Amino acid sequence: MHRLLLIALLLACEVLAGCARSHSNHPDAPAAPPAPPIARASTPDTVPWYEPEILAFETLDLASPPAPGQALFIGSSSIRMWSSLSNDMGAIPVLNRGFGGSTTPDVLAVFDRIVRPYAPRVIVYYCGDNDLGTSNTDADAAAQGFIAFDRRVRELWPAAPVLYISIKPSIARWSNWEAMSRANRIVRDYCERTDGPTFLDIASPMLGPDGTPDPSLFASDGLHLNTRGYETWTRVVRPALERAWHDAD
After folding, report:
1. In sequence order, which ranges of the chain are alpha helices (DSSP H)?
2. Contact present, 196 and 219 (Cβ < 8 Å)
3. How far is Cα 229 from Cα 215, in angstroms, rounded to an integer?
4. Do 162 and 148 touch, CB atoms closer than 8 A?
5. How confident is the model at residue 46 (pLDDT cuts 50, 70, 90)?
6. d(CA 100, CA 226)
7. Are 187 and 144 in contact (CB under 8 A)?
8. Residues 173 and 136 sit within 8 Å (Cβ to Cβ)
9. CB-based contacts of 195: which residues, under 8 Å, 6+ apart?
10. Chain segment 139-167, per-residue pLDDT in tens
């Protein structure tokens, strides 16, 4: 309803603007006074940048409702771009709801729209990479974003397994790996003392012999994964997902 009102407001503004232009073009029309500034409805506070992607998910869900009880993959572009996900997870039915550029607050903001409706049997989560980027060192905030997500899951489905894919080391963001490692440690500690979430270490297998990110795992941007990168993730994620799936019986 809120989105419909915003759209109606924008249409009304366009109609008024059109009338004003028509009136001012008439030869006998007096000069129109300057129009007051119009508040735009597309400000970050009212229409988040990710809204088109979430609306696309909701439209798809209306046209073809997903079966409940699948393995839900949620998070940022490393999830969204996992095009081989269904094949990589074998017989387990998966639902990909990753949206590119997302941070932990973004995922929390859309929890009731693209997590809760699916009643997932298992959740696989990857986010926090964009929270820290190349310069933000607030590791605690990134970790607390996942912890808040997991606690919301516990409120709805107390025994639901949540698999946390650790923040990956990448060439593009290697300068901030210390903060990312710190966020991973905070989440690992939380998972070890909490029933439900499991920490998956994908960082170790992505490092080369010299302890830096293996360039053969990345696309040309040095940030996103290529086919070999996803094969590396699959070797970690699939066995953990299979265990969680069967334990959820």
Report:
1. 2-24, 51-63, 77-80, 85-88, 104-109, 111-114, 129-132, 139-156, 177-192, 227-247
2. no
3. 9
4. no
5. confident
6. 16
7. no
8. no
9. 159
10. 999 999 999 999 999 999 999 999 999 99
Adjacent-strand bridge partners of 94: 71
Helix, strand, coil shares, percent, the chain, to 5: 50, 10, 40
Which range (37-41, 88-92, 114-118) has the least confidence? Answer: 37-41
Token pair for residue 235? 């070797």
∠200-203-205 over CA atoms, to 5°?
A: 100
Residues β-bridged to residue 60: none
The C-alpha angle with vertex 114 and arms to 150 and 219, in degrees rounded to 5, equals 85
Q: How far apart are CA 244 and CA 88, in angstroms?
A: 16
The helix or strand, by DSSP H or E, that contains position 122, with its residue range, turns out to be strand 122-126
pTM: 0.82
| DSSP structural state of residue 93 | -
Amino acid at 3: R
